Amino acid sequence: MPSSASILTLAAAVTGATAAFQGFNVESKGQTQQTFEAQFKTAQNLEGTNGGFNSARLYTMIQDGTTNDPISAIPAAISTKTSLLFGLWASAGQAQFNNEISALKKTANDYCDKLDGLVAGISVGSEDLYRDSELGQAAGEYVGVGPDVLADYVQQTRDAIKGTCLEKAPIGHVDTWTAYANETNRQLSDKLDWVGMDAYPYYENKKDNGIENAAALFQKAIDNTNAGTGNKPLWITETGWPVSGKTENKATANIENAQTFWREVGCPRFGKVNTFWFIMQDGGPTQSDKPSFGIVGGSTLSTKPLFDLSCDGYTNGGSGSSSSSSSSASQQSSSTEAATASQTETSAAAGSQTQTGTSSAEAATTSGPASSASGAPSTLSTSAATNPGSGPGPVVPVPSQSQPAGTGVVPSGTGVVPGGTGVPTSRTPTGPSGSSVPSQVSSAAGLNSIAAAVAAIMVAVAAF
């Protein structure tokens, strides 16, 4: 028989149903618990953000320099009360993915009683479909894996967390909109609770990609992703605009444009759509023409950003969804356009796009294996969503330098050596983007998740 306390917990879930995760992507190479803590505390205290950036996205579950020990970002998150989007690297072959699964299981075993409210979800892979595509290969990317392999990895992940405190964590995948627009990849998105979109208008160098069009390009990326995934709950997993670097067609990298992008793309969605920005502080591109996306400059952490991060006056239209009429029309036209674009975009346009168009509340309404009830204590935040070909190619290194996605390089620190062994080393964004009005999902999602939580309360009450 459920206790009154458990019913109060369900009620709290209703009140927090429309909240969204907001944070930065974080690298793993060379990181320790202390350095992760320093980054998380800095993000929470950034001037102009009112403490809103209290979440972080991981690319791997494995601590750098180990075979399968849990990444030290986990105890750091517990210490600083930072929520995490877990990530399992998926382009290094089955043996390495087994290590990711082992680290995930150890996380549940070692930290289950301390993770309450700190798990946003689990991402299986990052841009693997893009790297496995003709587009990615034409750009000289590392080989990724196909949708069938990723779908199997998703099931392995569900099996691994079954019966643990992570069982209800929503499972998704992160990729570019060009990957989601490809119909052959629908077999993967259909098995996900949410999809993570990486989007960088800056890299869409075959389009009119000046900063004045960046918000519209970003919205188009959302529309194309929605059309290709059947409006699966969408999270923004990577996006940003460089503060320095070379010009990409009409896109100029400078602090002024980075602030404009923040205000027109980020501000309308912050707090409404699960959003993970790229990046708080850039690891430092080794070449002067490489773009730097850090909103904090230099090599020393600071809570003083390069530009004003406040969103006063820039939050209108940030519901995470466009109007049903405009979105319906745009999906019909964009589905065809997306299919064509996915064949013609340059590597830059297909690069790194990490944008999501649905709020966490919406994701919570999607049914799936992760939504089944469990007696295990919940580690999910009340704002977290709770819904549910080709064989493996050469392993891809996990990126160690901070560069946006779409370059085929994956996050580092998984214990695998670079050079096609499955450990990411550096990332570089390349992909389309859209308007300042997020895509069509969060409003309905909020209502649906509230309804779902109310239904859960009714079930609990009936059990008395």
Automatic annotation (TrEMBL):
Compositional bias of kind Low complexity: 321-389, 398-415, 423-441
Instruction: Give the signal sequence positions.
Output: 1-19
Q: Give the bilayer topology.
A: Lipid-anchor; GPI-anchor
Query: EC class of this enzyme?
Result: hydrolase
Where it sits in the cell: the answer is: Cell membrane; Secreted, Cell wall
Q: Name one GO cellular component term.
A: cell surface
> What GO terms in the biological process aspect are recorded for it?
cell wall organization; polysaccharide catabolic process
**Major subcellular site:** membrane
Matches recorded under InterPro entries: Beta-glucan_modifiers, GH, Glyco_hydro_17
**Family matches, as Pfam families:** Glyco_hydro_17
EC no.?
A: 3.2.1.39
**SUPFAM superfamilies per UniProt:** (Trans)glycosidases
Q: Which reaction does it catalyse?
A: Hydrolysis of (1->3)-beta-D-glucosidic linkages in (1->3)-beta-D-glucans
Cross-referenced PANTHER family, in alphabetical order? GLUCAN 1,3-BETA-GLUCOSIDASE, GLUCAN ENDO-1,3-BETA-GLUCOSIDASE EGLC-RELATED
User: What is the protein named?
Assistant: Probable glucan endo-1,3-beta-glucosidase eglC
